[in-house]
UniProtKB/TrEMBL annotation:
Keywords of the record: Plant defense
Domain Disease resistance protein At4g27190-like leucine-rich repeats, chain residue ranges per copy: 84-188
Gene: LOC107928901
Membrane keyword on record: no
Classification via PANTHER family: NB-ARC DOMAIN-CONTAINING PROTEIN, NB-ARC DOMAIN-CONTAINING PROTEIN-RELATED
Span of the signal peptide: none
Name under which the protein is recorded: Probable disease resistance protein At1g12290
């Protein structure tokens, strides 16, 4: 323990839900040092309670990779009560979590700067309206994605919606959407990303079929498109 006093940043990888639960029992020293957590190759659980991460007050990023059986991260009452603990999240990455259907728990990460989701074949939406309705308005993040700078979506064949209405996105700089054929609507309106030089990357065929909220929104964002 003597040498651990020089430890500044710690990255941890968990391979099962039972391992993740141990994070809730870390002492304060370790909890403050952990900035990056990776959930890798989960095979033992279809649902996950991330409340175990609530004590990691400096947790900057969380990556979930190849968790083939994981279908959901539950928004339970105890997670709602601990919503303040996820203010440190800046990056969330989900790759090849093929059973995941939504990522609604990110509503409790109000300072999120980058959201990356790739190869999640069952993902239909990012924020589920049904799950959002289960959370009281006083506890949910009313400034959803207000710090988001980059949204990266790739190889999501069932993705239909990001959110059920347009958002202001005051910090948004880049959207990348590739191989998401069912995603026809962007959560943008003519007031979104004001003052930002937003770049939207995607395939030409997808861009041609985007359904805009109105003509003024289409006109505002046509110059933003850069073919992938």
């Amino acid at each position: 323990m003597e040498h651990l006093k020089y430890l500044n940043v710690l990255t941890l990888t968990f391979r099962s839900a039972s391992e993740l639960e141990k994070a809730s029992r870390f002492n304060k020293f370790f909890s403050c040092a952990i900035e990056h957590v990776s959930l890798l190759d989960f095979r033992d659980s279809r649902s996950l309670n991330i409340l175990a991460l609530a004590n990691l007050q400096n947790l900057y990023s969380i990556k979930c990779t190849n968790c083939m059986d994981l279908k959901e991260v539950k928004i339970e009452s105890n997670i709602v009560e601990g919503a303040r603990y996820f203010h440190s999240f800046r990056f969330v990455g989900l790759t090849y979590c093929k059973q995941m259907r939504d990522v609604s728990w990110v509503i409790f990460a109000p300072h999120l700067e980058k959201l990356l989701i790739r190869g999640c074949n069952s993902l239909e939406e990012i924020i589920s309206e049904e799950k959002l309705d289960e959370v009281t308005e006083s506890k949910a993040n009313t400034n959803l994605f207000s710090r988001l700078e980059e949204l990266d979506l790739c190889r999501l064949p069932k993705m239909k919606t990001i959110y059920y209405h347009a958002l202001p996105f005051p910090q948004l700089k880049k959207i990348s959407i590739v191989k998401c054929p069912m995603l026809k609507k962007l959560l943008l309106n003519s007031n979104s990303a004001k003052g930002q030089r937003l770049i939207i990357k995607g395939e030409k065929g997808w861009w041609k079929d985007v359904e805009w909220e109105d003509e003024s929104t289409r006109t505002a964002f046509l110059p933003s498109f850069k073919p992938q």
